[in-house]
Amino acid sequence: MHHHPHNILLVNPWIHDFAAYDFWARPLGLLSLASILRSHGFAVTYIDCLDRFHPRASPQSATARSGRGPYLKTRIARPQGMEDVNRHFSRYGIKKKWFYDDLASIPQPALILVSSMMTYQYPGTQETIAIIKDCFPDTPVILGGVYTTLCYEHAVRHSGADYVYSGACNSGILKLAADIIGLTNLDSGPQFDSADLDSYPYPSWELQQKFGFVPLLTSTGCPFACVYCASRYLNPSFQERSSDAVVSEIIFWHKNYNIKDFVFYDDALLVNAGKRAIPIMEQILNARLKLRFHTPNAIHIREITALTAKLMFKAGFKTIRLGLESALFKDRQKLDNKVTDAEFQNAVLHLKAAGFHKNQVGAYLLAGLPGQPLHSIEASVKLVKKSGVSPILAYYTPIPHTALWDEAVNSSRYDLEADPLFTNNAIFPCQERNFSWEVITYLKNLIAE
User: Fold this and answer.
1) Helix (H, G, I), strand (E, B), or coil: what is residue 373?
2) Domain 212-448: which topology?
3) What is the SS3 assignment for 141?
4) pLDDT > 90: percent of the chain
5) Alpha-carbon distance 216 to 202, whole Å?
6) Which pTM does this prediction carry?
7) Which of 79, 82, 86, 165 is nearest to 122 (CA)?
8) Which numeric CATH code is attached to 7-181?
């Protein structure tokens, strides 16, 4: 395999927000691109602006739990139009000086890729790109990710990137990189089939300063079409990996890097469990691997049977999150068709019978939906508590290209279509009155009671 003398810099940008917390969050898409580029002979450099384990960070953050913890943060001015929000606004991630120094210390890149996450966090992406441009004014910057896919026009106008890429760019990245850099001989390296998830190289997790856990995707997309969720738009087809490929990946990271914590990023982990989740768990048990698994993205309640619950417990699942969204079952047809009351109660019984403790099982409940009265959240919280698991509030973010978007736009006190900033769930964009700490306190107390 001949090496191109071309270095590609990949950057995971800062987050600008009222609140941000690292809960098993890592840039899977970006580090997947890193492995694809490396397997085709490009040299890759990686800078993570969110890195809690930066060499210059304080020693206590370096000994912190790798999967969960507070980001470093620097207070910055609230964005225009949000003067009425009585909360501090911050840049989450490494200090600006560290970023400049890190950029100064790397080989001159031929191309720079920046990823993006939440649509309303784009100012962090803008600032990241501005500093990159300050250091490497002549190097083309490509921006991709969730924000660019959901708010393409906005990203083209406002991000500062030279190229904005919408959609999954796994299959397109090699051609795009070659075209921009001006390479003609990009036929070397393992070819992979973008329609076959098993053929992808593993993400380059080892590029991180510290990696104590590995995120896993056993599928992309989701067969459900819930009105509040963009999974369908971001990944129009639901694709699955074979159970053997997933188990091989788990064993690879465990054997070579001693990784014990694995975090499923799937939107539909237990769908088609008979051919994917169940054989994965059975093979892990047969291999007698002592591992811990986490599901921060939530699993579909309907798919939790006596068997899947028992296998999850035995295989070492520790953090279970259920996608409940609302426990007011008579009103929920408007939201999704994911679950009924009986299915929820059954799932909880199966999980408890399998040995899960209520502190390990959390049910996400959406708060702040258009026209949702606070007392309805209260009713849902009570129902979840009564069933014996922990309610976890998920504050609703209006997302373009979802079925609920138009209703969100109509119910908001902000002009959501004018600026993605206003969709930030921290300001309850679809509630009629301005942000107030009373609402937050009320909701926190509900959970704590």
Assistant:
1) coil
2) TIM Barrel (3.20.20)
3) strand
4) 70
5) 9
6) 0.93
7) 79
8) 3.40.50.280
